[in-house]
């Protein structure tokens, strides 16, 4: 059981940091783009809301209690990234709802994570304690690293460049928005 725990812990950790899982990294980048290192408590609340929500749907989907079409989930993940980047650029007044919005988007991202987890334990006996829990802990550890790196990048940009907070937001959010638009086109469920 210990070996399996470590395997799933590593899988969760490497998945979140894998370049093929870029959508999750860009979502976290978009969440953090409007904040500075001084806003770490606010970011912590937002990321916690996202984490709790995606942990819930990860568990529900992995246990086959909820089953949503994979194509729809991938499209909604792209939409969550698009919406968050667009919010940063055009709808800053929605920031006060970011904890709630991130929680709602966390529900969607958890469904996406569950597909990978199901692929990993295909043919294995599923155990919440030796598969689901370590996979989720691995995801969270990777997420902490990503958020720390983004906040560190924002700190460096604020301190060592002549960019103000608005310019840093644009520098980070515009490429994320463009990438999300491409994914929305690529993952279009309406064709």
The count of helical stretches stands at 7
Order of helices and strands: HHHHHHH
Structural category is mainly alpha
Helical coverage, percent range: over 70%
Unreliable segments (pLDDT under 50, ≥5 consecutive)?
Answer: none
Q: What is the CA-based Rg, rounded?
A: 17 Å
Number of DSSP strands?
0
Q: Hey, roughly how much beta strand do the residues contain?
A: under 5%
Mean pLDDT: 86
State the separation between the terminal residues, measured CA to CA.
45 Å
Q: What general outline do the C-alpha atoms trace?
A: globular
Oligomer: single chain
Structural write-up:
With about 190 residues, this protein is mainly alpha-helical. It is about 80% helix and about 0% strand. The radius of gyration is 17 Å and the shape is globular. The protein starts with a helix and ends in a 5-residue tail after the last helix.
List the helices and strands and how they pair.
Layout: H1 2-17, H2 22-32, H3 40-62, H4 70-90, H5 98-120, H6 128-160, H7 165-186
How do you describe this structure in short?
The protein has 191 residues and is mainly α. 78% of the residues lie in helices and 0% in strands. The chain has seven helices and no strands.
Give short descriptive properties of this protein.
0% strand; 191 residues; mainly alpha
């Amino acid at each position: 059981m210990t070996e399996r725990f470590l395997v799933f812990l590593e899988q969760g950790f490497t998945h979140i940091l894998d370049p093929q899982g870029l959508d999750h990294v860009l979502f976290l980048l978009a969440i953090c783009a409007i904040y500075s290192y001084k806003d770490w408590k606010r970011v912590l609340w937002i990321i916690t809301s996202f984490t709790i929500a995606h942990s819930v749907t990860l568990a529900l989907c992995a246990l086959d209690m909820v089953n949503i079409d994979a194509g729809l989930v991938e499209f909604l993940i792209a939409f969550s990234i698009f919406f968050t980047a667009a919010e940063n650029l055009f709808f800053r007044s929605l920031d006060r709802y970011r904890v709630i919005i991130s929680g709602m988007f966390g529900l969607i991202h958890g469904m996406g994570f569950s597909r990978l987890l199901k692929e990993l334990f295909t043919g294995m006996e599923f155990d919440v304690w030796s598969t689901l829990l370590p996979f989720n802990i691995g995801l969270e550890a990777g997420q902490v690293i990503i958020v720390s790196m983004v906040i560190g990048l924002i700190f460096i940009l604020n301190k060592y460049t002549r960019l103000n907070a608005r310019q840093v937001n644009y520098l980070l959010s515009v490429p994320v928005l463009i990438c999300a638009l491409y994914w929305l086109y690529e993952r279009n469920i309406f064709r």
